[in-house]
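User:
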Amino acid sequence: MGAFAHTVASAPVDEFLTFFGLGLVGFVVAAVVTYRSLTHKRLIEDTPTSRLRSVSQGFVELQGTAAVFEGEAIVSPVSNTPCCWYRYKVEERSSSGNLKNEDRWRTIESDTSTAIFKLDDGTGICGIDPEGARVTPSLKKVWYSNERHPWYEAATTGLAGWLGNKRYRFTEERIELGAALYALGHLITHGGAAPALAESDVAQILREWKADKAQLLARYDRNSNGEIDMDEWEAARSDARREAAAQIATAAVAPAVDLLAKPRGGGRPFIIAATHEDDLRARHLRHLAAGLVIAVGLGVLGVWALVVRFG
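Assistant: Predicted structure:
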């Protein structure tokens, strides 16, 4: 430790500031990871799981099984695999041009699925709009190939692919069909309610009646003076309102559709995880512990370096 302290105390200023700055950045990143993991863990623990048959609109926690809507297939482009959600990256190997002639991977294509899929909890179905979510996939694969668009089965995986000096590296993440699904976000219900009675509906019926004046007089000209006076017109208007309401009541109503999406305002997280709640909570706990250890370690090391340097 004495030799290390001497190195810190005698290092050139620019070198000391560079390493101190890197340590400070690491401390900030670790602190952010710790805080986010803690808040997400508490939110997951404190938010009760809702059932779709009785769920209310707003910020909710759901658990079920991942699936796609009928006739709306979602297929990962790089492996041609049906799934519920995908994210992929295609990288090309290139030489860095330095003295060690080290290889570097340059991203040449990437994409993330934004197609709506569904969560089925056994009591109902909810659409999931993944745009803006923090997604934990059920599967992640990495493979290598000299072909730009390979089938996965024809490619080389693992260390053999990396050592094989292949030209392209493919990274794919998926939420697979039938995977366990946890979701935390803002639920809104679309459709399902009959339209309200509008004065325009009543006016349209009255216009149709007025077009057949003889029928209108026969129905409402109670004093037989050949005109519709104020009281008679009010009677016609009341009948028109009842008929408009009856038409609305018998009209086909679109079924209600629940959709879970990113909460507005950015104050709450939007989490989609192809796992069970207990596993997700354990993952956040591991991230919390690792971030805390790193943040405390870098903080103590930074203070010690300042004391050694300027104390």
